[in-house]
Amino acid sequence: MSPFRQLARGLRVLFRRGAADREVSEEVQQYLEESTAAFLARGFSPEEARRAARMEMGSATAVREAAYAHRPDA
Q1: pLDDT value of residue 71
Q2: Considering Cα of 18, then 24, then 25, then 30, what sign does the dihedral take?
Q3: What share of the chain is helix, strand, coil (3-state, %, to 5)?
Q4: Total of domains in the chain
Q5: Cα(36)–Cα(45) distance, rounded to whole angstroms?
Q6: What is the pLDDT at residue 13?
Q7: Is residue 74 part of a domain?
Q8: Does residue 49 lie in a domain region?
Q9: pLDDT value of residue 74
């Protein structure tokens, strides 16, 4: 992540916690969608691809908590 983006994100966290929380959720969702698409391209069924993507990522809650731990206000 570029320094400018990190700064902008940090300011959003300070002034708009809800927006920062949504951003983390959107990033987790985007990762799952991209990972699912990659598994689909490798021949997995849609259900198998979603499951494999979730397994690859691990716990969405743990990912969010890790992201929160690295926020500027943490």
Answers
A1: 64
A2: positive
A3: 80, 0, 20
A4: 1
A5: 10
A6: 64
A7: no
A8: yes
A9: 46
| Distance set, CA 34 to CA 20, 28, 38, 49, 62 (Å) | 21, 10, 6, 10, 19
In one letter, which amino acid is 58? Answer: G
Sign of CA dihedral 22, 23, 24, 30: positive
Among the listed residues 23, 18, 29, 16, the one whose alpha carbon sits nearest the alpha carbon of residue 57: 29
Dist CA 54 CA 74 (whole Å) = 26
**pLDDT digit string, tens, across residues 20-69:** 678 888 888 999 999 999 999 999 999 999 999 999 988 888 887 787 77
Which structural domain range is residue 41 located in?
Answer: 3-69
Does some domain include residue 25?
yes
38 is a domain residue? yes
Q: How far apart are CA 45 and CA 55, in angstroms?
A: 15
